[in-house]
Amino acid sequence: MGVTKTENFTEAQNQLASLAKALAHPARVAILQYLLKQQTCICGDLVEVLPLAQATVSQHLKELKSVGLIKGEIEGTSVCYCINEAVWEQAKNTLLKLFTLPINTKKCC
Amino acid sequence: MGVTKTENFTEAQNQLASLAKALAHPARVAILQYLLKQQTCICGDLVEVLPLAQATVSQHLKELKSVGLIKGEIEGTSVCYCINEAVWEQAKNTLLKLFTLPINTKKCC
DNA sequence: TGTGTTTATCGTAATATTACGATGTAGATT
DNA sequence: AATCTACATCGTAATATTACGATAAACACA
């Protein structure tokens, strides 16, 4: 079916999954890394940096924007994209919460 | 096209993306949380815990296994799945590395 | 006003993912 | 051996993702 049964999982599980989904493409990882590194951040740069067409980059930006990890402000003709620091911190904590859960020692393996 | 141009991104970017992809479904998040919490870990439990058919659960387990986050050992008739702690730690560090990158203060937004 | 520049959106093709019933397989049990 | 149990795999349908050319929209500038 290709449709995730979100309604049968917890809010937290769905949230973590959609955050992970946003990171689940190398282009989006690259975009985030670039935005973290750069001081100015204009979309045009990204099209030059990434091995993808302009339309595709725009699509990836849209996805990152929809989960809130980045925000874009119109700056004359171009758009200034940057990390949304609040959401970024929140995302970090969400992931950390999963990875710092205690691992019970298993009886079997 | 639906096919990711992995060859144009760095090894690290692709690795992070495929790790994230493994986490990008609430069922897989739920599986990991369950495995972290449980001391014994038999697949049959998961089918009862998750709101999904056995075939679907098996499919999700396969994906988690393929990125190495979990490992399964045959234990008589059933299979003992558990977190692969080494890979788990590595995954944690991979993600942390992204999220602890310094955020440059932006000139624009 | 007309023309370029920059980014978003549309349309669409190729491929991937999600889900499940049916079936296969392997060890356990009678 | 026949059967049960537990899990994997196959086949398939529905839907989502990825990518890009074409086009639209918004602003800048001559």
Structural notes for this entry:
The structure is a homodimer of 109-residue chains. Chain A is mainly α. The first copy, chain A, has one domain (11-97): Winged helix-like DNA-binding domain superfamily/Winged helix DNA-binding domain (Arc Repressor Mutant, subunit A, Orthogonal Bundle). Chain A has five helices and two strands. A two-stranded antiparallel sheet of chain A has the order 1-2. In chain A, a hairpin with a 2-residue loop joins strand 1 (70-75) and strand 2 (78-83). The N and C termini of chain A lie far apart (34 Å). At the A-B interface, helix 1, helix 2, strand 1, strand 2 and helix 5 of A face helix 1, helix 2, strand 1, strand 2 and helix 5 of B. Chain A binds a DNA duplex (30 and 30 nucleotides) through helix 3 and helix 4.
